[in-house]
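This follows on from our talk about sequence and fold. I would like you to pick a protein and set down its sequence and fold. Go ahead and set the record down below:
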Amino acid sequence: MSPDFLNSLTEIVKKHPLEEKIFIVPSKRDGRLAVEALAKENTPVVNVHSKTIEELVKETVYWKLLRDGKKELPQEAGRQLVYKIMKELQAANEFEYFSSIKLTPSLSESVYRAILDIKRSLGDVTSLNTSSFQKVEKGEDILKIIERYEQSRIKEGYVDRADFIKEALSDSKTALEKQVFVFFPHDAYHPAAASFINRYTDKASVYAPGYSNLKNTEQNRQMISRDSVPAEVTVEEKMVQHKGDYSLKVAFSAEDEVNQILSHLKNENIPFDQAVIYYPNANTYHSLLYHLKEKNGLQVTFSEGVPVSYYPSGKMLFAFLDWMKSGFTFKNLERMLQERSLFEPEGVSVKKMLRILKNHGVKKGSSSYRRVIERLEETGEYPELKSWLASLFKLVPVNSRYDTVTSAQFLESMITYLKNWVRPSGQDDASCRSHIILMIEQVIPHLTYKGKAGEVIAQSEFWFSQMSATASMPKPGHLHVTPVRTSLYYHFKHVFIPGMTNKNIPGSQKEDPILLDQERTAIHHFMMTSAEHIKREAWKTASIVTCLKGKTHFSYPLMDLANNKKATPAYAFIQLYRVQSGNYEATGEDVEKALTNASSFVNEETSKVSESSWWTNVLFKNGRLEKTFYNNELFAHLLQGNRAESLRQKGELTPYDGHLNKQTALLNPLVNDQVVMSASKLENLAVCPYRYFLKDILGIEAEEDEEEDRYAWLDPAAKGTLLHAIFERFYQYLYDEGKTFQADGTMEWIEPIAKTAIEETRTILPPPNEVIYELESQEILDACYIFLKLEETFSANRKPVHFEYDFGFKERDSVSIPVGEKGTLKLRGKIDRVDKLPDGSFGTVDYKTGGTFGFDEEGFFNGGRKLQHSLYALAFELLNEADRPVVSAAHYLFPTRKGKGEQVMRKFDDQKKAELLQIVDHLTAFIQEGQFPFTEDPNDCKFCDYKPVCMRHRYDEDLVQEKLAHPDTEGAKRLREVRKYD
């Protein structure tokens, strides 16, 4: 705190020891801090009260308004009212300026704030006219909004903040002559508030103590005039007076700045509660200090709290909103559950729950989850999970973002979610949750907005993103953290001000896009403008660098890591350096050069307080970890990693390259009859045994793209499932109606089937918009046309007898394929279609919705990469062994634009059957021997999803081939045998 201000305050309090002294403060916190500062200076503080102007105004007229049946309009309710009005006006084409502007919560916030500014400046908004605006259309639109706003407010009996001041101005009540008012320096005063306070305190004793008295500095729009004291000292001269009271440092990054502060406190044995950090950028320093608090238990208090999104309850609230906003995608639910902050169904782990949902085909849309609930109800499986899902969707107030819902109804469900579904996590988190619930409960009775769920979610998300919780005054034993702008009234012995870059200090202020500076001045000469805000920040900067009491440490980060560019020191920091160094011509480059000599990415000093700095220092200092680290059980994982890296460099397969030394009995389908294989698993095993090892042995799942494609509806898998369903229903329709395939008129048969299936899919997976829906629907219908043209020639003399012929699923038995003397391999699968051919044999048909890559006529097995055709042919024969059917051919059909209506045929005879069984023998040997080598062909890796965890592409190709050629690599020998079958 400024000694000048504290001295002035002390004189006032001592001059009026018994009278009621009212501190008019920017916030209640500032008044409490001032009282504490006076007490520390042994100044008796008697009969002192702190009030904001808003509180003083409400005290004056609150009971009168309450008597008249008026209600206070909460900020969020007012903003949503403005959003509703703007939406109605835009829909009715009554806007000119705002006609094509996208309505967002932030836009309605800006407009609502502008309305309050205008009302607090003019008092009577009827005097506002369009001439005050640069564009007449803009003025007319704002006048329409204000008119509708005032009509709605008055009709519902509400008063906003501006109305309180207006009522107070018309009231005759004034302060008592014996009362003493002390005005603290404020950020800004609205004209109406200034008029009220001047009138209200007209007969009382009034003081406006100066915070600083410096030449060439001016505080903006000072509300209370007083006899000016001639300024005698410049900012530079004041800096010289305090030259020994401050230090300057440059750190590599903002994180290093924080670590330097903690290191200084540790080295100097400074108690936390004697120090304060004034940060200029909450997004950076706030999050760094909160992370240290949560991870390392750092005792910290935040004067303005922290965003609710930092706490587990807040995170889960935003995750819930994201899940609904995304259309209930499985990926968002998975992310929400993996936070481990939701109550889970009893007896069902998160991993198991996610696996069940995935196996049931849940991807997106509330309908897909409800289908799972119905299936679990039918089967009686997992009753706890079924109940959990049913309760969750009972809680969710909408089925899609296109449903209509009221803000009040939606927020009620958020309260239930926080109370009953989110697991508490510590005292601070409980406080955060209580704060959110309290804020919602206070505003719900005043919310009337009703709209699409997507809009209501956006409104709620915007509101929650502005909430902070767990604000605190300084506490014993805690390091206090507060923004620079609130620093004027604190009283600490040790002050740290990081982030002194030209970007942060004094900061920038953009013009309000709703009310430009020129328009504000035209509306009322006393309205705040961006220029006035900058003047205010410049005054604060001058006050901070010259008037703080105690040892002050200024610093700035050399690198802006978020934007990957160098930062430059603030002008105030350069001025401090000039005074301290005596080089009054120093530039920013000179400051950087002089102070960065001791700054580096590797910092031994900060390694004493930071785990990451400690590791960095150890590694860079020695170039490598010493053996003592490996011998310590704390670092056993490092020893294992070091051993793995060393072994991987050998010219043979190791346990870290998929070599398990026959320890695979539980994984072997020939030994464990619970292991059921599929055609895709066997093909994956043949393409790259190591990928099979990662996917099916270790259970590693490939990372999915988390971002929703706004320009696509169905992914390839969903599109393939839809087309398969259409083709199956089409042939089932022909079969049921006793019809035969014919080209003419067939489109009229398949089109309604296709449209019905498309609509069913739409209810499960809502499209992003109607345009995308129409485009992809037409693509599906085009595929149906290509399918018919393909079938016109393909189905001649063939009779479909089975559709979606599945085995190994639900209650159907899997097929057992004999593998020599080793045993049998259980196989499951689904054959799209089985046809009876003119010679009495059968042919299998599989529809492929992708391209024909890899399905060359010459490559029958393609080195084991294409096995499905033969596996399904053999499976059909074995499943119908009593009837001795013969499958003579298998077909792949490509009925899409990408497939161009192509067809690929694979003959099936005793020779191919024998070759298939040899391939299966070799493939099962991989599992039996416990060797899963890399593929020998790098082309197999081009589109592999497992590259992030696979070692093959990280080795030199020579090392890969050396490993595969090693005489003990039995798996590689087997792989070479499989590749012979082309």
